[in-house]
Amino acid sequence: MRKIRVLVAKVGLDGHDRGAKVVARFLRDAGFEVIYTGLHRTPQEVAMAAVQEDADVVGISLHSGAHMTLVPKVINYIKEYGGDPDEIVILVGGIIPEDEFDELKAKGVDGIFIPGTPIAEIVEFIKEMVPKKKEKARLKKTA
Amino acid sequence: MFDEEKLKEIKEKRQEWEKSCLEPFMKKGGERQEKFENLSWVEIKNVYDPADIAHLDYIRDINYPGEYPFTRGVYPTMYRGRLWTMRQFSGFGTAEDTNERWKLLLKEGQTGLSTAFDFPTLMGLDSDDPLSDGEVGKVGVAIDTLKDFEILFDGIPLDKVSTSFTINPPAGIILAMYVAIGDMQGVPREQLRGTIQNDMLKEFHAQNTLVLPPEPSIKIITDIFEWGVEVVPKFNLISISGYHIREAGSTAVQELAFTIADGMAYVEAAIERGIDIDKLAPQLSFFFNSHNNFFEEIAKFRAARRMWAKIMRDEYGAKNPRSWWLKFHTQTAGCSLTAQQPLNNIVRTTIQAMAAVIGGTQSLHTNSFDEAWALPSEEAVRVALRTQQIIAFESGIPDTIDPLAGSYYVEWLTDKMEKLAWNYIERIRKMGEGSVLRGVLQGIETGFFIKEISNAAASFQREVEEGKRIIVGVNKYTIEEQLKIPILKVDPEVQRKQIERLKKVKAERDNKAVKDALDWIRNASENNENVMPAILEAVKAYASVGEIMGVLKEVYGTYKKPIII
Fold it and tell me: Which residues of B touch A21 (CB under 8 A)?
C-alpha cells in the first residue's frame, strides 16, 4: 500500500507559516508523504496541486480570517479540476472561531485543528479518516 | 565586581554549602527535573552568586540609566519621569470602524495609536484585486487611497497623538499618506511623530509579507531614511523587529541576534548611501517580543540595549550619545496564547508585560485573551489595557529604575544572552565577508534564517508533544470546556463597501495627475533615484496602494520565497 499523501497548503495572503511547517514536518516524521505548497497560494493553485499530486489529505492553514471564503473555494476547484472531494480528507488549521466550525464542516471540511492541538491527534485523525472516506466514496459510487 | 579575597571566600563557601547543606538535602528527593533550561535551551543553575558575575564591571558593563552602555535604560529617569506608552495594536474593517475603535481606546486612557492593516494593504494590493477576495478588512483596516486615511484620522490631531504603522512593503506609501494628512491638518511635518515598521529583512526571515526582492527592498528602505531624516525628523523611520522572528518559533537568543544583525544591516546600507549616522540614529527604533520565561526576557532587553550601544559607538562611529540608544516597543507573545482555557492568557500576558516593563520598554502592547480564536473583542481589549494600567499604577514596579540590576542571575543571564547573540552576529558577518548587510542578504538567499527558526520551532513543538514542556491547559490540566467568549466578527459588507469607495475615488480624482505621478515613480526607480517625493505626489493625487506597488513590482519584479519546511 502506498503511503498516505498529504498536501499542506497556505492559501491567501497570510504569511503565518509556523504552524503549517511544524505540522508538515511532524506528519512527514509520522510516515506520511508530505507536500508543502509554500506561501500565498490561490485556491486554484492549491486545488490544482491536490489533484495533480493525487493527495489523500489536503490540510489548509489560515490565520487570516478568510477561511469562510477561501476554504470552500479550494473544495470547489478540486471538483472543477476533476478531483473528488468525497475521497479527499479536507483539514483546516489555524485561527478559526469555534462558532464557524459547523458551517465549515457543512461545506465539506472533515477536521478543524486549532492552536494547541497535539500533532499526534492530527496523525490519528488522518490514519482513521483516509480509509473511512475512501470506503464511503467507493460505496457511494457503486450504489 | 568583587575583590579577589572576598571572591575566594565566596567560592569556598559555595563548595562548603554544596557539600554540607545541599547534598544531604538532595539525597531526600533531589530536584524536579534533571536539567532546567530556558526557552533558548540555555541551562540554568540552581543558585547564582557573585562568582557568576565577577567578570563584569559595574561602570563598564552596567552603569547608571541614561549612560553608556545603557544596560539599565536609555533615560536617566525612566518611568519615574514618564511611563511607557500604552499602545494597543488595533484595526479592522473600514477606516470608519477603526476610527471609532481608536477613539474608544484614547478615551480609555491609551496614550498612542497603533495601526493593524488588513492583508491586502500589507501586501500592497487594492481591495478590488482578485487576490484580496475574502481578506478585505479582516485582520486590520483596509486602506486603498488617501481617502481612507482621511476617514481613519478624522478627529485625531496628529500634533497630539503619535501613531505606529505595522506596514512593510508599502511603508513609504503609508508614511506619505500620514504626511499628507498632517499637511491637511496644518501640522508642520517636522512635528509629526509616529513609527512605520518598514523592516523587510524580518519579513524574509519570518513574517512573510513579501512583495519585492531583498535588494530593491533595502534600496527603498534607504530612500525612506534619506528622505525621512530631512522631512519628518521626529518620526521613527523603521521599527527593527524581532517580534515576528520570535513568533515564527525562534529562541530568545535568535530573536536578539537576528534583530540586532538586521539593525546593523540597515545602518550599513544607510552609511553606504552617505546618510549621516548621527542624524539617522534617533529615528531608528526596535520592536521585541516578550514571552513567558520572565528573567530570560528581561535579560534579553538589557542585553539588546548594551549591544546596540557598543555597535553604534564602536563599530559605526556614531558620535552623539543619543545615537547609541536602543529604544524599543514590546508586544507580549501572541504565540504563547492558548485557545484552551482562554482566561489563562490574561495571566501569561501579565507576566510578559511585567518583563517588558522591568526590561525598560518605551511602549507596550498587551495581547487580549481571546486572540487564539479571533480578533479581540472590546472587553478583551479593555482587560489587556487594564493589565498595563495595573502594572503602572498599582504594582510599584515603575518606581525604581531597572530593579533587577545586580541580581546575580539576571546579570549573568544578560551577559550570557549577549555572548550567544554575538556568536550568531559573527557568523552572519562572516557569511557577508565582513559586511553584516551582505551577510544578512546571503542568509536570506541560502535559507539560513528560515532553517534556524524552523528548527527551533520544531524542537519546541517536540518537547510540547512529549510533555517535556508544560503548557497549562494544553498538555497538562486540560478540561472539557464550552467556550463562551464573545468573538468579534467583521462585517461581511466591508469588502463591498471598500471596493465601492475605491471606484468612487478613481472616478472623481484627476487621472492625469495620477498617471504623471506613477510615471515619476517608475522613472525615479529605473534611474535609481529616491522614490519618496514621487510617492508623496502620487498619494496626494489619490493613487491607490495597489497602483503604486504595481509600478514598483513592474520595475523590480516580485519575490517568491524558497520552500523550506
Answer: 454, 457-458, 565
Interface of A with B in 67-126 (CB under 8 A): 68-70, 95-99, 114-116, 118-120
CA distance B26 to chain A (A): 35
**How far is it, in rounded angstroms, from Cα B385 to Cα B348?**
14
**A73 contacts: CB under 8 Å, gap ≥ 6:** A43
Cβ pair B65, B72 in contact under 8 A: yes
Q: Domain range for residue A12?
A: 5-142
Comparing CB atoms, the residue among B122, B134, B487 nearest residue A97 is B487
pLDDT in tens, chain B (565 residues): 788 999 999 999 999 999 999 999 999 989 999 999 999 999 999 999 999 999 999 999 999 999 999 999 999 999 999 999 998 888 889 999 999 989 988 888 877 899 999 999 999 999 999 999 999 999 999 999 999 999 999 999 999 999 999 999 999 999 999 999 999 999 999 999 999 999 999 999 999 999 999 999 999 999 999 999 999 999 999 999 999 999 999 999 999 999 999 999 999 999 999 999 999 999 999 999 999 999 999 999 999 999 999 999 999 999 999 999 999 999 999 999 999 999 999 999 999 999 999 999 999 999 999 999 988 888 999 999 999 999 999 999 999 999 999 999 999 999 999 999 999 999 999 999 999 999 999 999 999 999 999 999 999 999 999 999 999 999 999 999 887 777 777 787 999 999 999 999 999 999 999 999 999 999 999 999 999 999 999 999 999 999 999 999 999 999 988 888 8
- Structural domain count, chain A: 1
Residue B133 touches partner A, C-beta closer than 8 Å: yes
Chain A residue numbers with beta carbons less than 8 Å from the beta carbon of B341 are none
CATH number for the domain including A108? 3.40.50.280
Q: Domains (ranges, CATH) in chain B?
A: 4-53 (no CATH), 76-465 (3.20.20.240)
Q: How many angstroms separate the CA of residue A87 from the nearest CA in chain B?
A: 27
Question: What count of CB pairs under 8 Å joins A to B?
Answer: 108
> Which cell goes with B523?
522613472
Asked if B549 reaches chain A (Cβ–Cβ under 8 Å), the answer is no
Residues of B in contact with A65 (CB under 8 A): 135, 138-139, 374-375, 490
Q: Do B134 and A70 touch (CB under 8 A)?
A: yes
**Nearest neighbour of B374 by CB, restricted to A15, A38, A95:** A95
Are the beta carbons of B414 and B42 closer than 8 angstroms?
A: no
- What does the alpha-carbon distance between residue B145 and residue B181 come to, in Å, rounded to a whole number? 12
Cell numbers given for B157? 490631531
Residues whose CB falls within 8 Å of the CB of residue B163, separated by 6 or more in sequence, listed in order: B112, B113, B114, B115, B156, B178, B194, B195
